[in-house]
Amino acid sequence: MKKAQTSQQTIVFFKPNTEVFQEMPLAQNGVSAGFPSPADDFKELRISIDQEVVKNAEATFYARVAGESMQGAGLDDGDLLVIDRSKEPQDNNIAVCFIDGEFTVKRLKVAEECIYLMPENSKYKPIRVTEENELIIWGVVTFVVKKV
Amino acid sequence: MFALVDCNNFYASCERVFQPQWEGKPIVILSNNDGCVIARSNEAKALGIPMGAPAFKYKEVFAKQKIKVFSSNYPLYGDMSSRVMQILENYTPDSEIYSIDEAFLKFDGFDYFDLKTTGHKMRKQVRQWTGIPVSVGFAPTKALAKIANKIAKKFDSRTQGVYIIDSCEKRVKALKWTAVKDIWGIGRQHSKRLEAQGIQTAYDFANLPDSWIKKHMSVLELRLKKDLLGLPYIKLEDVIPTKKSIATTRSFKSNLSQFHQLEERISTYANSCAEKLRKQEGSCSAVLIFIRSNSHQKNKKQYRNSCVITLPYATDSSLIISKQAVNGLKRIFKDGIDYKKAGVILLGLVPAKERQLNLFQPDLNKHDPLMQAIDKIHLRFGPHKIKLGNQDLNSTWNMRQEHLSKRYTTELTEVFTVNNNSNIIL
């Protein structure tokens, strides 16, 4: 009861004022097709997720996760990865890598004589990359899009 | 100074970005309907696979030599191209997209040391951001930049992909190195005639008297000669016809913002491309169009986009090419933008006589007599006397693309997959 009262107090309804009639100019010659709608000037663009996740459109690519090895980092099977290739890969980055003929996503650990591709799931083992392996660090993962 | 930036083996490089296992291995790309070879990696060239090789004849060779075959994936190539071009255009306000994989950039007020650094920076950035390797040639003129680029590419390990013609000695050396038939814009007819005259190299050509060139060739070749001498006679966006690529890209005199204005431009560019195509007796398999605002007017709303329409069969019909170009424009046009530049690029060029007959398109050649008539009228009464209305092309397209890679960058359902299961502890 009290709640309802409060809300009644805070909501103010505006009604159109119909008492004063204002004359509006009439478009005499009709409106040609392709004439921009006057409302266009006030049109706001809708929120686009691109604004948040795409920092460099030319360097941004997407990939789909298959498998569970990065669950601990919040990367689940079926998630969409946003990859920004303009970012210089650093130790501790999560990156899409191409290793021995296959794409995978792991956390980079730079050691003295090798690089480790670290999973974040105890059921998986780290991949040790030495000179004998062919590794391409394809791009740094900057965002993950998941369905909840 | 001009720079010509050229993507190395562009179609093959695009495929390798998403399938790096083919790095260093032979790759060929087939025309629409998997007809013939339209692009080759260096490794495939070294194995002697000729351009235009019919796929069915070479099937066993491909298998035996372990050559990876791809169907042409124009949506992918178009998108990768627009990424590369955008990166390049940030380096200078004056640029011309010359083909899907080449751009001329104009640099004023840079000294030579800066240019070399800039060249390497461009190359590194394009490679890192997009995965596409490029070569860069700098020179005082467009025709020389073309040659500088060839040198950069040919002697990749020595030049690190960047070469500058910045002295008279270098220019003379480069000209002597270039065979007449490889001079940019010299057609086959002219190069044969020059060779018959004992003119072997670009150097010989550049030393011909103006009067001889005027008499036996045209004003275009005269301008080419001046360009080769280091005098910039060919400006950005001047049309130099070549067999490899057909493109019409232009900056507008004033900004355009209405759909119908752009439609008219795109349709005109598409027509002029189609005419060039018929002149060289070719047909095309896909049409790329792009539109963009003036990126150097930072206070205005910026927009740029491109799209590729893949055709069901190779064609040289102005009607189809123009119609599809406008369809592409409809997809990417956005209101409220001041557009400054637009272009049409024809892709997948194959000789007209080799174009694939499609069983389900029995009226493939239906526009041929009409096109011939239009070309004749233009020849007689000057260009653009006949313009096209819109024509609808309602056909279900059923293309053969057995070796098609995914549209990794333009379809959310086709992005590549990273496998996170292989290191599981069993």
How would you characterize the overall build of this protein?
The complex is a heterodimer of chains A (148) and B (426). Chain A has 2 helices and 7 strands; from the N terminus they run H-H-E-E-E-E-E-E-E. Chain A is mainly beta and 148 residues long. Chain A has a domain at 64-145: Umud Fragment, subunit A. With 426 residues, chain B is of the alpha+beta class. In chain B, strands 5-6-1-7-8 form a 5-stranded mixed β-sheet. In chain B, strands 9, 10, 11, 12 and 13 form a 5-stranded antiparallel β-sheet that branches. In chain B, helix 4 runs antiparallel to helix 5 and helix 13 (259-279) runs antiparallel to helix 14. The longest helix of chain B is centred in the middle third of the chain and has 21 residues, at 259-279. Chain B is globular and about 75 Å long. The interface between A and B is medium-sized, with 40 and 29 residues. Strand 1 (60-66) of chain A pairs parallel with strand 14 of chain B, so a sheet runs across the interface.
Short synopsis of the structure:
The complex is a heterodimer of chains A (148) and B (426). Chain A is mainly beta.
Mean pLDDT of chain A: 79
Class of secondary structure makeup of chain A: mainly beta
**Distance linking N and C termini of chain A:** 36 Å
How many E-type strands of chain A?
A: 7
CATH superfamily of the domain at 64-145 in chain A: Umud Fragment, subunit A
SSE run of chain B: EHEEHHEHEEHEHHEHHHHHEHEEHEEHE
The oligomerization state is heterodimer
The helix-and-strand class of chain B reads alpha+beta
**How are the strands of the largest sheet of chain A arranged?**
1-2-7-3-4-5-6
Q: How much helicity do the residues of chain B have?
A: 25-40%
